[in-house]
User: What shape does this take?
Amino acid sequence: MALLALGCAAIAAVWITTSGGRCWTSEALRRARIQAAPPVLSSLDLRASTGEVVRPWRGGPAPARAFLVTFIYTSCPTLCSTAGDGFGSLQRDLDADGGAIRLLSLSFDPRRDDSLALRTYAEHHGADSSRWLVAAPTTEAGLEKLLGEAGVVVIPDGRGGYAHNSGIHVVLADGRLVGIFDLAQGQEALECARRWLS
Amino acid sequence: MRSPLAELRTEAGKLRVVVAATVLVVVVAGYRHWLERDMARHMLVEFPLLIVAGAALAWATGGAARGLPARCNLYGLTGFAFVTLTLAYWMIPAALDAAVRDGWVAGAKWLTLLASGYVLPASFGLAPLPVQGLMLGNLAWMTAAVGLVYQDADRQLCLYYLTDAQVVAGQGLVVAAVAIGVAWCVWVGYRLGVEAPGRSAARGQLPREAAMSGPCPRQAASPERNSVFP
Assistant: This one.
């Protein structure tokens, strides 16, 4: 009987932790939870590569109604560069949406990513500022809050850089984070944004 | 002059073990952030230290006999299952991340690992060797399997640990699995050597077979009988 109770308790704990046995990693759980109940991100002021201060959602620039967001730091030699390349090709597909969907590369390293670093990153990846914003939060507190709300974890990699859960985050103009896709799933993320806007 | 082992069996010795286990828990708590900053330290140092502290507390406070009521822990199965399930649970990447992120999950981890250590001495005492072998073999196999998964994963499984750290932790888990198996085999060899008929007779003790089938089954089933603890 004790063994049976123990087994039931263990199954219940694993069931709850892994969302019914479907998600064994925190990243999978984050994506599943966001899909089930999209969290609302707080408004945030950003310092863009163009030098202007913008607020992307909840008071963002009309007519943008959705953003595809990747979290980056410009000195990253691997994933963030891949994300930039992906966005570089994805921005050409945004014309059909008449500016309703914009790309946003958001730096979580605002201390090192000054306007020059952001501009260099934008130019290196051919970012068209009317469709693709490269920016960093104006305050550390705003950044911390955003990372917490989006479930993004950034840890030092011991070599002067960072490791983080990367992905394309689909954020609507009202701040709702409605989906997260792998960096290679740019088209799927775009389709998701279009579905929410239609 | 008493041996160190005999010294530990005295009331003063047991009190020292309780103090040492308590100090160990406090030290681990003090170094928690340092231990949990690295995946291998988290799984291969903090986990075992908490289990050892729990086991020491159980032994010194008489918990070796009372860790779980014997009727709830037939042949030590419930205790071993609790230890195995606890360790299996905290090896799940999502659970490990939650233990780093959320204080209440970290508290649950500490409690369950200490409790695992607490029920372990009694379970060893109650479990016949084949049951011990089965349960520890299962634990070792599971640990090795998780270690291999951590090594082979091509991406970060835990958000709070780098891929490099994940590989090192995976290798450490495989080594720990082998160590569990080897340590148990060595201990069994030692016990069988100690309880060999010739040596038992020389020490004025009943051989194991006689003890198990003798007129005193209570003694044979005593938790202290197979105990790995002094």
Summary: Residues 4-220 of chain B form one domain.
